[in-house]
Design brief:
mainly alpha
């Protein structure tokens, strides 16, 4: 390996590690990070929580960081578990904290491996690509909140896109933490009611977030996040007509 090749290989190493762990995890951990596993181990989890609350909190947050940071299956079940063990508010806070830290891991790995190179190419490009990049740069906060609030945007992609567009880390962390709170609250509340669900031998409604009384307010927040972009666009058009 030449000296020039070494920095490139090192730069891509974090992404390679994440990819390998994600593939291995998808093949080996799906049965362990599932709703059935939570149901079968609920009594043991409650007993451990009651005896070691702080340790349970730390272990839960670290597990969530690993799930998101390495794109492992089970993020939804982890959020349900947080609500089940700690209640809606505390469970949501611990889930959002773990998810944000895990997302930051992917963000930094992607930006270190590919972000700078892609940014340089987009800055040097002409035409529509450069215009899109410029538009996103001018409305970063709005776009960051939008991709977090819209349920249709996969969480993994919402971590990569900002990294490739050279979004500052603090903006990414703040928008991630605040933007995923609504969805986390919904599923944490479902998790908080799992005791009754387990007692009836039923399964929770995982599609709850797409029901109108929940989805519409979230979409409203998404539209609100784009309001500054709309106002800026309208103002810009008015300036051009003067």
């Amino acid at each position: 390996m030449t000296e020039e090749a070494k920095p490139g290989a090192t730069r891509h190493l974090p992404l390679v590690i994440i990819l390998v762990v994600a593939v291995v995890g998808a093949l080996t951990l799906r049965d362990y990070l599932s709703f059935d596993a939570l149901r079968d181990n609920r009594d043991a989890l409650i007993t451990f929580r009651d005896s070691h609350y702080l340790l349970t909190v730390v272990g839960f947050v670290l597990a969530y960081v690993a799930i998101v940071g390495f794109s492992l299956p089970g993020a939804l079940v982890a959020t349900l578990t947080g609500g089940f063990l700690f209640g809606t508010i505390a469970g949501s806070f611990f889930s959002v904290t773990g998810a944000t830290l895990g997302a930051a891991i992917i963000f930094m790995a992607a930006r270190h491996g590919l972000g700078d190179k892609l940014k340089a190419r987009m800055d040097a490009s002409q035409g529509s690509i450069n215009k899109i990049k410029k538009g996103l740069d001018e409305n970063q906060w709005s776009m960051l909140f939008f991709i977090r609030l819209v349920p249709a945007v996969p969480f993994f992609m919402a971590n990569l896109i900002p990294a490739f567009l050279a979004v500052p880390l603090h903006r990414f962390v703040i928008s991630t933490f605040l933007g995923i709170i609504p969805g986390s609250l919904v599923y944490s509340s479902v998790g908080a009611g799992l005791g009754e669900v387990f007692a009836r031998g039923e399964s929770p409604n995982f599609g709850l977030i797409f029901e109108p009384h929940i989805l519409l307010p979230i979409l409203g927040l998404s539209a609100l996040s784009l309001l500054p972009v709309v106002i800026k666009t309208i103002a810009g058009k008015k300036d051009l007509t003067k």
